[in-house]
Write a structure and sequence with these properties.
5-stranded mixed sheet; single chain; 0% helix; 5 strands; 68 residues; mainly beta
């Protein structure tokens, strides 16, 4: 597992959905944008997005593309 704990857009907090030390966190600051949290640890990449209406969408993808 990687040892990533990185934040984009100058944010300095962690969303309570994630407790992983391997978290790559991206928070879009504008209220007109979605918010994204991406966990790049292990065989899968987990993506969580929060829509404008505050509902949450999740996706789990293989960390490596088997076609390459």
């Amino acid at each position: 597992m990687s040892n990533l704990n990185w934040c984009f857009a100058g944010c300095s907090w962690h969303h309570p959905l994630f407790k992983s030390a391997n978290l790559v966190l991206e928070r879009v600051v504008s209220a007109k944008q979605w918010e994204f949290w991406i966990d790049l640890g292990g065989p899968f990449t987990d993506i969580v997005a929060r829509r404008l209406d505050r509902t949450v969408v999740t996706q789990k993808l293989p960390s490596e593309n088997p076609e390459h």
